[in-house]
Every structure is written in C-alpha cells, then in structure tokens.
Design goal:
The complex is a heterodimer of chains A (about 325) and B (about 80).
Chain A lengths: L8 E3 L5 E3 L3 E7 L7 H9 L3 E7 L6 H7 L5 E7 L4 H4 L4 E3 L5 E9 L2 H17 L8 E6 L3 H14 L4 E4 L7 H8 L5 E5 L2 E2 L2 E2 L5 E2 L12 E7 L13 H7 L3 E7 L5 H16 L5 H8 L4 H4 L2 E5 L11 H6 L6
Parallel strand pairs in A: 3-4, 3-5, 5-7, 7-16, 8-9, 8-10, 10-14, 14-15
Antiparallel strand pairs in A: 1-2, 6-7, 11-12, 12-13, 15-16
Helix pairs in contact in A: 1-4, 5-8, 8-9
Chain B lengths: L2 H19 L21 H15 L14 H13 L1
Classes of the chains: A alpha/beta (about 325), B mainly alpha (about 80).
C-alpha cells in the first residue's frame, strides 16, 4: 500500500522544524460554496491549504477526481443529495497516479440550512484541534449480541495501553442515554452490530430522528459504523450515515453502501485500532491506514463529511463522558 | 533468505501473534496445536490472527480459506505456499 503522507510537523536534517501543510481539495457546486464558508475558514485557520474546485451541472466523475487529487491529502466531494454515496465515489479513498491513497469523502447537499449546520459542526470539531491539552477517547458502541460484545471487548483490549475507551454498548446503556452520551463531544466512536439504511439495529433501533432535528450537544469527531448498509440509499432518501454529519451529530461518519461480512468488519476493527495506536490524527488518515487489504472489504464503505475531521475530543468531553451512567 | 530461516521467521511471527491474542497461552506451543480444540480459540481470534498475517505478509486471505487455519502447522503451510505464489 502506498505510504500515507504524515500530516504533522517534522524536523528537517538542519534542525529547523518543517511543517507539512495538508492540502484538501473541495469539489462543490458553485452555488453552494458560501454555505460551507465557516468550515473553509476553520480549515484555513488550522493551516490546511484548501483548493476549491467549483462545478455546475453534473458531478465530476470519479476518474477525473483521481487525476485532480494528485498532490492533495484529502478530497471532499459535495453534490446534490439525490445522488447516492455508492455512485459518487468508488470507496472511502481514491488512489492517485503515484499509487497513494487519498481519503475521499462525500457531502450530500440538501438545502442551505442543512449545509450550514454541517459546516458549523465540522468547524467546531476542527477548532478543537487547536486547543491545548487535547485528549483522545473512543466511544465503543454495539448491539447486544455476544458476537459484537466480543468484538468490542477486543477493541478495548487493543486500545487499552494508548487510548481511553468508553464502553457504551447496548447491554450497559439504553438508546436515549447513548444518544446523549454522544453529545459529550468525544473524538471518535465505533459501532459494531447490524445496520440498515435507516440506522443501527442495536439499542432497539437507532434512527436519525433519535438525535433530534438539531443535535444540541457537542458533535462527535467521527462516527464509524462497522456494519452493513448504513450508507445505503435502498428505499430511503437519505441514509443514516449521511444524516449524522448533516444533523451536526458528527463532523464525519463512515458506513457501508451494501452488505458486509463480519470477518471483513473485524478486519476493519483491528486495522483501525492499529492505526489509532500508531497515531492517526484525522478520520481520513485513520481510514486509509486502517483499511483491510482486500477491495471487497473496503470498497463498500464511504466516508461522509469532513475527511480531515480531527479525532481529538472537546475540552470537557472525557470528563463528561466518564460521568455518563451505565448499567453495572 | 533460505527456506528454513523463512519458515522459522514465520513460526516466530505467528506464535507471537497467537500470544498477543491470548496472553495466557504457554510459551513453546507445539506446531500441531489446534486452535479451537487445544487453544480454545474462537472465530474472532482466528479472524484477528488472519488479519495480522495479511498485514505482515501482504496476503489477501479469502473467507473460504479460513477453514484451513486449524493449527500452527497448517498456518505455516498456508503462508509459505501463498508467499511463494
């Protein structure tokens, strides 16, 4: 696999710090650029070079995006929400001409209110990465089933030495409390279990309306659903995975557009844990580094929202998260 | 690298991963140790082992081949065969 370019400052041989400036390519309809202004500012304040490529009419084809992505570190493709995630991008990353994988995210544009809500919450998450004393913590969510609780146990064990985990699986917390807990503003959450286009099967079913029309809490940095179909548009106008960033629940989400295998999702879980332990700092870096080797395992998945969403938690998130009541 | 060295390296790697997955495993596992019957591995342990092997050796192990990973011996055989391919 092509090397992922580190989006961090490095020390040059001369002892002077050289900063690698991340480059983001934002491909967006000309008429909607203004809706994302707050996020554009937040990216630039973090030193991210943003190249804005506008278009009118049809969404640019994936092949053209691959060419345009050479030299960039992440792509965000924004377009008409009538398009499905499965058709706009070939997977959660593109491969440029040099063989390097670039995280590629989709943003469905519905209306100005929804677009701006996403931009505001994604900007809020970006600003966290500028705060001192950043903390990394991961919410572990899952369906109440031995298979998925076992996977959660394993994720917790793999992260134990490096990353704090908050176990909010369905056996220890109810749906409403889990939804509120996600509003504490952690940097990352994993869900394992069954999934559908409309939401998670765990917690007796989680749908987008459970998060309310406008999510009142802090957005989570990235919410990854390691399960079937949460980014599928089958019999639904907007998939669950797409709704989360648009509702301001998360700056980014990750979900599958079709059925997935438990074995592949387990490979994802292991790879993502390894990537976290190795120091992945954004959801895009996490996905590219953590992806399993087989295309059958990664191709169904899509990244939605900000591909450079930092995985750091809000200032009081860990404190607030530790106070969440779970069943003994 | 000759075949004996390579096999030894693979054995060391796989044994290390088995112990990382199940820290309670004794040192010096016999090559004939069967994952399920002798080591009490479940399907998740097996998938994790295979994932580690895929990462280390650049292999893609189809799910249909998982049933071949029944023991340390069989795992070594699989890796050596597929690396050579």
């Amino acid at each position: 696999m092509a090397e992922v370019r580190q989006l961090r400052a490095i020390a040059s041989a001369g002892g002077v710090n050289a900063v690698i400036v991340p480059h983001l390519l934002l491909v967006v309809p000309k008429a909607q650029v203004g809706d994302l202004w707050v996020l554009l500012q937040a990216w630039r304040q973090r030193g991210i070079e943003v190249v804005v490529q506008t278009y009118s009419g049809e969404l640019p084809a994936a092949a053209r995006l691959c060419d345009a992505s050479t030299g960039v570190d992440a792509l965000l493709l924004a377009g008409d929400a009538r398009r499905a995630p499965a058709t706009v991008l070939p997977g959660p990353f593109l491969t440029d001409r040099s063989g390097r994988r670039i995280p590629a995210a989709w943003l469905p544009l519905r209306n100005a209110e929804s677009n701006r809500r996403f931009a505001a919450s994604a900007a809020q998450v970006q600003r966290r990465a500028r705060e001192p004393h950043q903390q990394m913590a991961v919410a572990l969510l899952g369906q109440w089933h031995p298979r998925y609780l076992r996977v959660t146990d394993r994720i917790a064990a793999l992260l134990e030495s490096c990353v704090r985990t908050l176990r909010w699986t369905s056996d220890v917390i109810g749906r409403d409390d889990m939804v509120r807990a996600l509003g504490t503003g952690l940097g990352l959450g994993f869900y394992v279990g069954h999934g559908r286009p409309s939401g998670w099967v765990g917690y007796q079913g989680v749908r987008r309306h459970h998060f309310g029309a406008s999510h009142g809490g802090e957005p989570i940095g990235a919410l990854l659903s390691l399960c079937c179909r949460t980014a599928s548009r089958r019999r639904i106008g907007l998939s669950y995975a797409e709704s989360l960033p648009l509702q301001g629940v998360a700056a980014a989400s990750f979900g599958a557009t079709s059925e997935t295998l438990h074995t592949d999702n387990t490979r994802w879980a292991i790879g993502l844990c390894d990537a976290l332990v190795a120091g992945a700092e954004t959801v895009g870096e996490l996905i590219v580094r953590g992806a399993p080797p087989s295309a059958s395992a990664y191709a169904p998945y899509r990244l939605i929202g900000d591909p450079l969403a930092p995985l750091t938690s809000a200032r009081t998130a860990v404190f607030d998260a530790l106070a969440v009541t779970t069943y003994p | 690298m000759n075949a004996t060295t390579m096999t030894g390296d693979i054995l060391d790697f796989v044994t290390g991963e088995l112990c990382a997955i199940r820290p309670s495993l004794p040192a010096g596992l016999p090559p004939t140790a069967r994952y399920t019957a002798d080591l009490n591995f479940d399907s998740l342990d097996l998938v994790e082992l295979v994932a580690r092997i895929e990462q280390r050796y650049g292999l893609k192990v189809p799910d249909a081949d998982l049933q071949q990973f029944v023991s340390l011996d069989a795992t070594l055989q699989y890796i050596v065969t597929h690396i050579e391919r």
